[in-house]
Amino acid sequence: MARAFTPKVVTANALVEGDAVYLAADGTWVRHLCQAELITDEVRADARLALAQAQPTVVVGPYLADAVAGADGPEPAHFREDFRRKGPSNLFHGKQAERAAPQR
Amino acid sequence: MYQYNDFDTAFVKNRVAQFRAQVERRIAGTLTEDEFRPLRTMNGLYLQLHAYMLRVAIPYGSLDPAKLRQLAYIAERWDKGYGHFTTRTNIQFHWPRLSDVPDMLEALSEVGMHAIQTSGNTVRNVTSDHFAGAAEGEIEDPRPIAELIRQWSTDHPEFQFLPRKFKIAVIASEADRAVMKSHDIGLRIVEQDGARGFQVWIGGGMGRTPMVARLLRDFLPRADLLPYLEAVLATYNRLGRRDNKFKARVKITVHENGLDEIRRQVEAEFPRRRAVFSGVDQDWLARIEAAFITPSLSPRDTAAYHAARDADPVFRSWCDTNVAPHRRADHGIVTISLKAHGQTPGDMSAEQMRLVADLAERYGHDDIRVSHAQNLVLPHVALTDLPALHAALKPAGLATGNIGLASDLIACPGMDYCALATARSIPVATGIAKRLQELKIEHDVGHLQIKISGCINACGHHHVGHIGILGLDRGGVETYQITLGGDASESTEIGTRTGPGFGYDEIVPAIERLIFAYLDLREAPKETFLETYRRVGMTPFKSALYDEAAAYAAE
């Protein structure tokens, strides 16, 4: 029996900045997992991944990552994606610092 | 140390210009990622979890103040104000933007540095003894040989696409401070019947199949080094497995073909290689050797040093752990710990780099080394200058007296940065170090090497740690396996797994139980952890790890 589809987000690294980015529902790339589109349908997941793969001058290595619905948007299903979402645990750098910085 | 000539400078500048054009084409979309990846890895550029990472080569771990200051400048100008020294004596910048990398490489080229062949299936940075030129018991400074190999292997057209990466280490004493027997080729300079030559060791390595190198040639005449290395690499290039990445390192080639067959093929190839060497390499070596003149050290009075030792117990303790004997009795070899308790092993801020550059000028004859244990070394410091050096290091957080002790841990960047990692290693390292500081036991524990890798590739050298820790992903949970009895010295050994792994929250207490078990088991304070382990074996340590854990859980 085929395994049931589990919710996903499309993620990649930005080509120039190199940081983790996520595909939003409107087709734009966003910097934070909570802003990503949580995809619950396998056909749409394949289509969104294909859309991402067609943008090689914007992102590198797009893939589907397991995620779960949270109160403020998608949450990571695996600790690796949790580190990508936040940044390193030894220094306050990366996404966690960007989120803490005043929005311009 | 070696200074670039016009050829070297032009070569590196050309490579920067070439890479700048490649980056522009990648951003413009005329190069795909598949086309670009081998080009960027040839120039030391990786894409990791949060950003690109630029790995800069520090040949045989040798730096001078100008180079270290430029690394500080790069860290501040294009990164986040720090760099990370690695177990291959390189430095990594963890936050560059792709579009800035050509400028970073340009800045490196201004001080005779680059990132060429710090990645890819090529001959990587040649490493050596971080005490080279200063240590007692050394036949000669091994770095000129390392530099000769660096020049020969850089952009060598035959060896740019080997089956897998290839690491070479060179030492010149019986004491092995370079983990020589864990390299694809380890060279030890030896003397036989009054002539200098090399012991050639092959097939050492860590990773998923750890192996200790085996002796391929017990004496290779000095002048035959490069043709012999070519014969080895040509044999590996021909026989190495390209069908399976996990079986592609030369250690597997040796294992599958047998050492005798490898030796036979190397020896068959060797005369052909030697015939085309005209002796120009030996002329070059003579020129290189002239650039590695050990500074002339004037005799220095040591009274102030002894007075400071008597007056300041903190200084005395730092000297006892961080200052090794120099071949001259009135000098010492100073290791600057990059392992302040709670700090990331190997990380160094730009301010700290500038301070060490200044101190190397003032007290260290402009000589700075990076050790595979992720510390810096000033190899030639007069004992009488040590009090002032220590006082200058202290406010910068660089005077931790823990070299060779349990908190002098090796740790790879792990899943905090690395895309290959399966678990974190840095917070495990800092957690252990902080716990040791709370317990205030590490001076009592004495010499103990703990080494932590965040994946099976073993950049953190866990296989050869007295206590090795390997972080894995087990069912979506960070899990840590422990090995005991590894040895990174001249008596290299691979550690033995204790049993089931521990969760992230369990690993620091588990290491604490091992250390207390050792304190109970040792016959005398001078018996080290490794000696105790070799005497009593695994059983009592396993009991401490697993039975005591069960006992605590039942309480």
Topology:
The complex is a heterodimer of chains A (about 100) and B (about 550).
Chain A: E1 8-14, E2 20-23, E3 29-30, H1 42-53, E4 59-70, E5 73-76, H2 79-86, H3 95-100
Chain B: H1 6-28, H2 33-42, E1 45-47, E2 52-56, E3 62-63, H3 65-78, E4 82-85, E5 91-93, H4 101-109, E6 127-128, H5 143-153, E7 168-171, E8 185-192, E9 195-202, E10 214-221, H6 225-239, H7 250-257, H8 259-276, H9 280-290, H10 303-311, H11 313-322, E11 323-325, E12 331-336, E13 347-349, H12 350-363, E14 368-370, E15 376-382, H13 386-393, E16 410-411, H14 426-439, H15 442-445, E17 450-453, E18 467-474, E19 477-484, E20 496-497, E21 502-503, H16 504-521, H17 529-536, H18 539-554
Parallel strand pairs in B: 6-7, 7-8, 16-17, 17-18
Antiparallel strand pairs in B: 1-2, 2-5, 3-14, 4-5, 4-13, 8-9, 9-10, 11-12, 12-15, 14-15, 18-19, 19-20, 19-21
Helix pairs in contact in B: 1-2, 1-4, 3-4, 3-12, 5-9, 6-8, 7-8, 10-11, 12-13, 14-16, 16-17, 16-18
The sequence of SSEs of chain A as H and E is EEEHEEHH
Strand content of chain B: 15-25%
Number of strands of chain B: 21
Unreliable stretches of chain A (pLDDT < 50, length at least 5) are none
The CATH C-level class name of the largest domain in chain B:
Alpha Beta
Mean pLDDT of chain B: 96
In whole angstroms, the N-to-C terminal distance of chain B is: 61 Å
Strand content of chain A: 25-35%
Q: Which class of secondary structure composition applies to the elements of chain A?
A: alpha+beta
Rg for CA atoms of chain A: 14 Å
How many H/I helical runs of chain B? 18
Number of helices of chain A: 3
